[in-house]
UniProtKB/TrEMBL annotation:
Gene Ontology MF term list: proteasome binding
Superkingdom, natural source: Eukaryota
Biased composition, class Polar residues, residue ranges: 310-322
InterPro entries referenced in this protein's UniProt entry, alphabetically: Ubiquitin-like_dom (IPR000626), Ubiquitin-like_domsf (IPR029071), WLM_dom (IPR013536)
Pfam families tied to this protein: ubiquitin, WLM
Official protein name in the record: WLM domain-containing protein
Domain spans labelled Ubiquitin-like: 6-75
Protein species of origin: Pisolithus tinctorius Marx 270
Ranges for region Disordered: 297-322
Domain WLM: 116-301
């Protein structure tokens, strides 16, 4: 049988591959490994919305529905990226082991105004996991780590005793229209952290707002008034926590420099708070702080109404499924 030609799109590049139609599908995966350094096990080939499987024993390209001139979308991580991910995961597991060992050691009770070490290790994200078949898993893991260690997120998780088994990501092509999903009332939270074109990541503060929304689903499954009340409270507490840092209030965590105004409206309000020329001299610090929080709360309320339309968690916590 004569050779036929395919076009494979991968990370902005197009690779042309010529193979006989009676060749096994595995030969296409092997050829793509030579061109992209992505091993077959990490390759994901999409054609007409379907995945072309490399493990189907004896299936030919023709039997898989491929023909001359078709275009195939490829996703996957290179060998180098996978090695880097495994190294990062190894470091993460080592850190987890050390923390567990420390938690088991007997401690001398000390009087403290902060959260206990048990609380710090219990109310958190217990595992972070990017999707290995998407581009640059180490960068995705770094994004998830930033969310998990965000001082404001840590603050509300300790305050409300939120524990999440797994924090991972949603692939845009696999979950179109969804920005977040809470599975099993905190067994796992999935966030859409990437752009539609897989060429980068969505704005950090937007993803963090989705995370607050999904954390509220740890308690309430439906978007009812109970959920909305808790979700508004979480957003308000995040805004208050960060505003307090901007005003110099001291918490037991050093978060100086982490506050980022997320809109022109909020940024303008903070100019007043930080002593701009348009601030009346008679205004108290509390008045300035309240003005900034009012601006942030108004904006967050509008954004939350939009988030409800792109949240996949709609069932009660006991029956929430993917």
């Amino acid at each position: 049988m004569s050779d036929t030609s395919f076009e494979i799109a991968f990370r902005g590049n197009t690779h042309r591959v010529s193979l006989p139609l009676d060749a096994p599908v595995s030969s296409l995966y092997a050829r793509l490994e030579e061109l992209t350094q992505v091993p077959p096990s990490a390759q994901k080939l999409l054609f007409r919305g379907k995945k072309i499987g490399a493990s189907q024993e004896g299936v030919t390209l023709a039997e898989a529905g491929l023909r001359d001139g078709i275009k195939i979308q490829m996703l996957g991580s290179t060998t180098h990226e996978l090695e880097a991910l495994h190294e990062t995961e190894s470091e993460h597991h080592t850190k987890e082991r050390i923390l567990r060992e420390r938690a088991l050691k007997p401690r001398v009770k000390l009087r403290s105004t902060g959260s206990s070490s048990t609380s710090a290790t219990q109310y958190r994200f217990h595992k972070l996991e990017p999707l290995g078949h998407l581009p640059d898993p180490p960068a995705a893991l770094a994004r998830l780590s930033k969310l998990a260690s965000d001082p404001a997120i840590h603050h509300i998780m300790q305050k409300h005793r939120f524990s999440v088994g797994l924090l991972t990501e949603l692939a845009p092509h696999e979950s179109p229209g969804l920005l977040g999903l809470n599975v099993g009332a905190g067994q796992a939270i999935k966030l859409r952290i990437r752009t539609d074109e897989y060429d980068g990541f969505r704005p950090y503060l937007e993803v963090r707002r989705v995370l607050c929304h999904e954390l509220a689903h740890n308690v309430w499954g439906e978007h009812d008034n109970n959920f909305k009340e808790l979700n508004s409270k979480l957003n308000r507490e995040v805004a208050e926590f960060e505003a307090a840092q901007a005003h110099g209030t001291h918490y037991l965590v050093d978060v100086r420099g982490t506050y980022e105004p997320s809109s022109n409206e909020e940024g303008e309000a903070l100019v007043h708070v930080l002593g701009g020329s348009s601030t009346p001299l008679t205004d108290s610090i509390e008045d300035r702080r309240r003005r900034a929080l009012d601006a942030a709360t108004s904006r967050l309320k509008k954004q939350e109404e939009e988030l409800e339309q792109s949240c996949g968690t709609t069932k009660p916590p006991s029956t929430t499924q993917l």
